[in-house]
Design goal:
The chain is built from 15 helices and 14 strands. It is of the alpha/beta class. It has two domains: 206 residues, 3-Layer(aba) Sandwich (D-Maltodextrin-Binding Protein, domain 2); 97 residues, Periplasmic binding protein-like II (D-Maltodextrin-Binding Protein, domain 2), CATH 3.40.190.10. A five-stranded mixed beta sheet has the order 10-9-11-8-12, sandwiched between helices.
Length: 343
């Protein structure tokens, strides 16, 4: 093998490495958030159970609690979050441009969003599916009976695409009423401008309970026409921040697996379980690997709770929505929630 040939290989390798943008970007968002002392979180403009402000502008919901957990892990303070309400059409541009650090806005993880939009998705925090809500006076029992119906739908969503696919596949017609702002779309439905409203079934339950003039006058049809894995998103090319968000979510799930709650987490510091000791920082190392304090997981569990606590108070039996855990239960109970090992 000649020296000249080896030199050529070295030059080529140098050019390849010089053209690799991900290395230069690694750690950028994490450093920015730490320097600002605040996590900027993109949320919905108001979906009960997921992200909704009260009269004082204080946000609550499952997506909100994910942002709080990230802040608690990073700063030891779950309040260090600025919430930016975004419509479905605004959300991806806001993340791409750096206006927000993380998007926690009941957003479905799809191939094109993962590849074409410059996003990376964190673990799924709610497994959902699209459905339809109608007034009972319409007299339909199935979505297949909606031939010729006017359907309220938001633009720039997987919902809009799934709607067209479903009606085409079933060879029935519909008229879309497309309005970007959710409040205006909901008002249009309840005023009778649409025969049906379509979005994720969790969203339908939230709208029915929190916005219907009389919730008993409306029903959610039985069909689930899509898979909607809802997950937070971050920008591509920043693996360190992506890792932080991933493992914050895994810690919420593993805490529930291990029976660790916001109420007993202090007692769990005395546990002899090696997994618990690693996760709570009694055995150091996990925090250093993430670039965080060793008590990162302890802080998020203490301040926000485990995944089960978050689910119950926001959308489960402790909330007005009273949704069943279903697919969002732990893998040990027949659900899909499964944490990667923290070790």
């Amino acid at each position: 093998m000649s020296v000249k040939w080896l030199a050529g290989i070295a030059v080529a390798l140098g050019l390849v490495l010089a053209g690799t943008p991900l290395v230069a970007n690694a750690g950028q968002t994490l450093d920015k958030v730490k320097q600002a002392g605040m996590l900027v979180c993109g949320v919905s403009t108001g979906v009960a159970g997921f992200s909704q402000p009260d009269n004082q502008g204080n946000y609550a919901g499952l997506d909100v609690d994910i942002c709080k957990a990230v802040a608690a892990a990073m700063f030891g303070d779950a309040t260090k979050v600025k919430y930016v309400p975004l419509t479905a059409q605004q959300r991806f541009t806001a993340l791409q441009s750096g206006e927000v650090d993380i998007l926690a806005r009941n957003t479905t993880w799809t191939l094109q969003r993962d590849t074409d939009l410059g996003l990376d998705f964190a673990p799924v925090v709610y497994y959902d599916g699209q459905g339809f809500m109608v007034g009972k006076k319409l007299g339909v029992k199935s979505a297949k009976e909606l031939n010729g119906a006017t359907v309220c739908v938001q633009p720039g969503t997987t919902t809009e695409l799934n709607l067209a696919d479903y009606f085409r596949a079933n060879q029935i017609s519909f008229k879309p009423l497309v309005i970007e702002k959710l409040d205006e779309l909901v008002a249009a439905f309840f005023s009778g401008r649409c025969d049906a409203f379509t979005t994720d079934r969790s969203g339908l339950a939230a709208i029915r309970v929190s916005r219907a003039p009389n919730p008993d006058d409306y029903m959610i049809l039985p069909e689930i026409i899509s898979k909607e894995p809802l997950a937070p998103a971050v920008r591509q090319g920043d693996d360190q921040f992506h890792d932080v968000v991933d493992w914050v979510i895994y810690a919420l799930i593993q805490a529930e697996e291990k029976g660790i709650t916001s109420k007993n987490v202090d007692d769990q510091l005395k546990s002899e379980d090696p997994d618990v000791k690693r996760m709570l920082g009694v055995t150091p190392g996990m925090g250093k690997s993430l670039g965080l304090d060793e008590k990162w997981a302890y802080n998020e569990i203490k301040m926000v709770g485990n995944y089960g606590e978050i689910f119950d108070r926001n959308v489960g039996q402790g909330s007005p929505l009273k949704l069943d855990r279903g697919k969002n239960d732990l893998w040990t109970k027949g659900g899909l929630m499964y944490a990667m090992p923290i070790r």
